């Protein structure tokens, strides 16, 4: 790829662009950094000059029964959502990208539409619907609800990988005598594997962080995000930043992992 | 595009040769079933529920579609038109928040997207990660982080205190605080579509323009701007629609004193337990969302994104 650049303000002023993007990145980091700073702070009135470090809030968070239950509930939702949305999204992506069928474009349109919905709209529609069809509220309805938003995102991610595969691949495999099962097991799945893995990681992180949908569907069960929200609106304790930070640490590790996988693919592929 | 068509006809032929009922148990049909079932049961159903409930009366929590009424529509639409009562305020707040958010995210994102796509080569992955990470953090947590930053005796207080500034107006619980929150939360939804459209501009195009003597301004107006337009359209619709649904931002940063459509819907459902009234407002949101979503999806070319390799 050629790397000749535009010459706004000449070549020497490239640092301006670095500076600007750094500012935007800093802006995006403000609340997350504030959160982490607050989670280690032991004192009433916050002060940078006189910072009192403590791990006490993390200890308190990890030893509280209600917080641990909320973590368990969140995992009980996130793990099935990850597995199921990866299967559903990958299947739909393969159908859309590697086959021709009637109403193919309409299928894509409807399947990807939930991505663009404000979650409050999905959540409250699902909440009314769950009461009408007798699905009720709890962990299982939350799983089904999150699937509606997350499966299309997996489909989007896997589709982009699957569209990058040479269109002649299937024909070549068939010509060499591969049946459908062999075609999938030996050819298609290995080729989309990286997309599926990053799709699955994104699915887990999005489910792990989801608030709107579970807040409408989890009923009496509290998840970690609804617990935080409850504490934010009524009865703040310094444990809240610690709990929120814990969620953030898990997310950041997984997202960085997913990006590294994507990046490795770009390096070796092409 | 032509390779795609060739692929389709080829696959069409090989699919047809298998034939019969078995075909329905083979790809692509079997692959389409899970997604279709899921969306039918838990996406189409809930949206129908919103529409049906919007035509119900009183505080009904069981839908009786045959006994419908437009009472809630009269209340909401009448309130919006006359501008009186809560709906006038809700309309003004909602439009102010969403339009300002869209404009601000566009102004902030455009130069950043340009820089990322065309100027930044070193540490690009690090920058991309820093911009993506907030997207995968609960909106709750990010808004909470802002509250910790802005609140009295918070992080900002402590920082400005270093410069000897002790007294300044509280930054919390205002409309501008909500806008700060929504601008923050939805910035990546503007930045990445523009970034992708900038990536697709051929270097040769820009070189040619430069060789023909185009100034920086002409280059921007005649080349960059028109070619990045799809990204601007997608990003703007995305940010506008998503910020219409911004409830947590209004609740936490607005302190429950400023009502937008999202917080008013939430209020109708939660506090006053009036499903039909909440649904009627949600129908308005639903219409805007569906139209924008379709426009976005028709503008996005997945194949093009795949070819850019980012």
From TrEMBL, chain A:
SUPFAM superfamilies with a match to the protein in the record: MetI-like (SSF161098)
Record-linked CDD domains: TM_PBP2
PROSITE patterns named among the record's database cross-references: ABC_TM1
Keyword entries, A-Z: Cell membrane, Membrane, Transmembrane, Transmembrane helix, Transport
Transmembrane residue ranges: 15-41, 77-97, 109-131, 143-166, 187-208, 239-261
GO CC terms: plasma membrane
Superkingdom to which the source organism belongs: Archaea
GO biological process: transmembrane transport
Pfam families for the chain: BPD_transp_1
Annotated InterPro entries: Bact_Polyamine_Transport (IPR051789), MetI-like (IPR000515), MetI-like_sf (IPR035906)
Domain ABC transmembrane type-1 positions: 71-260
Protein's UniProt keywords contain Cell membrane: yes
Keyword Hydrolase: no
Cross-referenced PANTHER family: PUTRESCINE TRANSPORT SYSTEM PERMEASE PROTEIN POTI (PTHR43848:SF2)
Protein name: Spermidine/putrescine ABC transporter permease
UniProtKB/TrEMBL annotation, chain B:
ABC transmembrane type-1 domain boundaries: 91-298
Keywords, in A-Z order: Cell membrane, Membrane, Transmembrane, Transmembrane helix, Transport
Database matches in CDD domains: TM_PBP2
GO cellular component: plasma membrane
Transcription among keywords: no
Family as reported in the entry's similarity comment: Belongs to the binding-protein-dependent transport system permease family. CysTW subfamily.
Listed transmembrane segments: 29-55, 90-113, 125-141, 177-196, 223-245, 281-300
Location(s), subcellular: Cell membrane
GO terms under biological process: transmembrane transport
UniProt entry tagged with the keyword Transmembrane: yes
Coiled coil: none
The name this protein goes by in its record: Spermidine/putrescine ABC transporter permease
Membrane-related topology note: Multi-pass membrane protein
